[in-house]
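Proteins fold reproducibly. Next comes an illustrative record:
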Amino acid sequence: MKDTFFPVKEDTIYTGKGNESGYKFIMREDTDEILSCVTDSYKLIKNKDVVDKVLKIFKKKKIKNNFVGSRQFSNGAKTTYTWNLTNQKVETNKGEEHYPQIILVNSYNATTQLSFLAGVFRLVCSNGLVIGHTVGNKTNRHSIYNTELEKIDEYVDKTIDSIDKVFTKDFPTLVNTKYNNRHTNQFLKLFPDFIMGDLVKYLSSYNIQTYWDLLNAATFVATHRMNKKYESTFKFEESLYPKVVKWAKAEA
């Protein structure tokens, strides 16, 4: 985690006449690398500051957690942090355990808002690989005019509280709703072409009866064939769960 706390600074950009241009660079102080060029209204939020707030809330609410790890994209311009919360556990099938998860997303290049994602992770194979399902999302735009940025503690609190929804509503719907083949084409379109062969092969050998079965198929193939170091994989994981839940609710 500490490698994501590199020093960051803002550097004003001037015009040829020496006037302030209204833009600034966000730069790594340790390498002088330019991470982004943003307007002066952009508010810099440092990774360490937000992580410290999250850890403070964990301690305050006495939430047991395991830090899964962090992922950096574009040489640190965007970073994600993931914690598994071990206070609560749900079993849907024999030997299949599910735990709440919190994902923090921050960036220095304005490509994403400051986000707190509530999700669920589950073991999908014996070597401990996991895949996350997003069930709650609180975001804040990096702007000096955004007063909500002063309420980061509140947003983390709300995100953690939203986890109850998945255990009491979403999981029963997925497990108990019979799968309708009309969603097959939409499901296949979620995946990149390079794993389509493996996906079709798996689906043809796996008896999909419910939307829970469909989610299992998706997570199995994604975990074994998609590289978690890529940002595209993170975006896929983020979008998969809500889509499958939406289809299940339409059929329930």
Q: What stands out?
A: Residues 123-138 have pLDDT under 50 and may be disordered. Residues 177-251 form one domain.
